[in-house]
């Protein structure tokens, strides 16, 4: 059964933030990369990625990259965090970045 936003009932919302001066660059790289396999849309300051295991909205400011995600609690939400973070780390290899997820750092 789905909720009014089209997600499976019981989906968990969670947020993450990482400080970087290259937020827009990374947002666009992430969305463009994910778009090869899943639906993704983006502009220089906002993007949305629809994974089979959850959705993630990404926003960029001059100092931060922010993630607002929804997935089923447990394995699916952890998988979404892992996929987003591992790809960000790969694209941002010149920096040491860690996403601070609500409830603590992953």
- Mean of residue pLDDT values: 90
Low-pLDDT windows of residues: none
Number of strands: 7
Strand order of the largest sheet: 2-3-4-5-1-6-7
The SSE order reads EHEEEEHEE
Cα separation of the termini: 29 Å
The description of the largest β-sheet is: 7 strands, antiparallel
Class computed from helices, strands and strand pairing: alpha+beta
Give helix % range. Answer: 25-40%
Judging from the principal axes of the Cα atoms, what is the shape?
globular
As a whole number of angstroms, the C-alpha radius of gyration is 13 Å
Short characterization:
With 106 residues, the protein is of the alpha+beta class. It is 27% helix and 34% strand. The termini are far apart.
Describe the fold and architecture.
This protein is α+β, with helices and mostly antiparallel strands and 106 residues long. The chain contains two helices and seven strands, in the order E-H-E-E-E-E-H-E-E. Strands 2-3-4-5-1-6-7 form a seven-stranded antiparallel β-sheet, with helices on one face. Strand 6 (100-101) and strand 7 (104-105) form a beta hairpin. It is globular and about 35 Å long. The mean pLDDT is 90.
